[in-house]
Design goal:
Length: 167
C-alpha cells in the first residue's frame, strides 16, 4: 500500500465535559470526525500529490467509518492553557519526503507572549524538520507548515489538532 495523495486538515475545539470530547470536537472542526484514524510515522512517499479540498469537498471525500492513515499533532489542555499543535512537511525532490510534528502548552500567556509562543512552535518544527532531513540524507521541496492553537477558557478543556492524511 503506497499512498498517492495527501491532505492536511486542522481544528480546535473546547468542551466543558472532558479532554476526549474536546478532541472529538477538534476532529469535527477538521472534517474527519466520522473516520477511524491510524497513526503512522512521518514519511511522505516519493511523488505524492498534495490535495487541497474545501470544507464541502472534504465532507464527501471520505466515507463514514473509513480508515485514514495520519501523521498527527494533538495537544489537549485545560482552563488557562494556551495550547498549540503543528506539522511541517516537505515533499521529496528525488526521494521520499518528511513530516514532523510539535505540540506546546503554556499557562496563561499574556497577549504579548502569544506571538512569541507561535514563533517558538514554528521554530521547533523547522529545527525538527531540518534534523530529520539531515538524518535521512534527503532533499525536499520548500517545507510548509500548519499550526492550530487555542486559549482554553475557564471551566473548559481544549484540543488543538493538525493531521496529514495519506490516501
Amino acid at each position: 500500500m503506497l499512498p498517492k495523495y495527501y491532505l492536511v486538515v486542522s481544528g480546535t475545539a473546547l468542551s466543558p465535559v472532558s479532554p476526549l470530547n474536546a478532541f472529538d470536537g477538534a476532529l469535527k472542526a477538521a472534517g474527519i470526525h466520522n473516520t477511524n484514524l491510524v497513526a503512522v510515522s512521518s514519511i511522505l512517499p516519493r511523488g505524492v500529490v498534495h490535495l487541497e479540498l474545501n470544507r464541502e469537498e472534504l465532507a464527501s471525500f471520505f466515507e463514514p467509518g473509513e480508515i485514514l492513515f495520519v501523521v498527527q499533532a494533538v495537544r489537549m489542555g485545560r482552563e488557562g492553557e494556551y495550547i498549540s499543535a503543528g506539522l511541517m512537511w516537505g515533499e521529496g525532490t528525488t526521494s521520499n519526503g518528511l513530516v514532523v510534528e510539535h505540540t506546546s502548552s503554556r499557562e496563561g500567556p499574556s497577549r504579548e507572549e502569544l506571538e512569541e509562543v507561535r514563533r517558538e512552535v514554528v521554530e521547533a518544527l523547522r529545527s525538527k524538520f531540518q534534523e530529520g532531513v539531515r538524518i535521512r540524507g534527503i532533499r525536499t521541496k520548500e517545507p510548509r507548515f500548519k499550526v492550530a492553537e487555542v486559549l482554553v477558557p475557564e471551566g473548559m478543556y481544549g484540543c488543538a489538532l493538525v493531521a496529514l492524511i495519506l490516501c
